[in-house]
Amino acid sequence: MGKVSWSEDALKIFNQIPFFVRGKVRKKVEEWAQQQGLSVITPEALYRAKRELKDKAASAERGYAVEACFGRFGCSHAITNSRKLIEEIEKLLEEEKITEFLLDKTNGKLKHHNQFRIAISECPNACSRVHIADFGIIGVAQKGFDEALCNGCGACIAACPDNVIGLKDNKALFNDELCSHCIDCIKTCKTKALSAKKTGYRILIGGKLGRHPRLATPIAELATKDEVLRMLQRVIFLYKRYCKRGERLGKILSEHPHLLNELKAN
Fold first, then answer.
1. Which residue among 114, 121, 195, 241 is buried most deeply as judged by most CB within 10 Å?
2. Res. 122 pLDDT band, cuts 50 70 90
3. Residues 150, 49 share a domain
């Protein structure tokens, strides 16, 4: 059967669905419509699909999900390229048997909200929602500054999305405590006074939405790829120790706050 179309009224309803699940919902509904022999999805068909797909859509085949931004395929904001890291993360999750672990904890009723979620962003713009993932990874840069090369042009001030750069004695002045560690200022510096001294990853853990939302907590800065993998392995070890019924890592950290200090200390 050919491509399924949507009526205008059905699209209005569809566009009220949270943006971060629209792609998945659209694919499922269109597959369902094709199976039903429908060429147009109307509001009535959409509501019917919702009823019939409700339980199936909530179920998850895997105990984990790895999401990443498109930065690794070419983006002017990208600081890192995590293609290899993503492969190694997925390999680690399989070796740790996260799916089997969560199937056991949920008595075989594994849902999407039980998944251990990893999100990777190649820059601090965090397009892949790293702040609500169990394990978030952000590409960051430590800048170098050669004051002798700075001519006080102010280009970096105009480029900074965080407004943390000023001028003093006709030289750039940086507030590193508030800096997100992107590379916008570095890219705009024509005198090469600014450079990326080091690149790596910021690691955050325990983010989630739901009834009790929680933003992920930063636990490491400028980590190397190998350090990210080692930290993930340690986080999974603690997650398995404390997870009772397939709850998210954020809930575990809220109940056992000492775990954050334990992870930060090593």
1. 121
2. very high
3. no
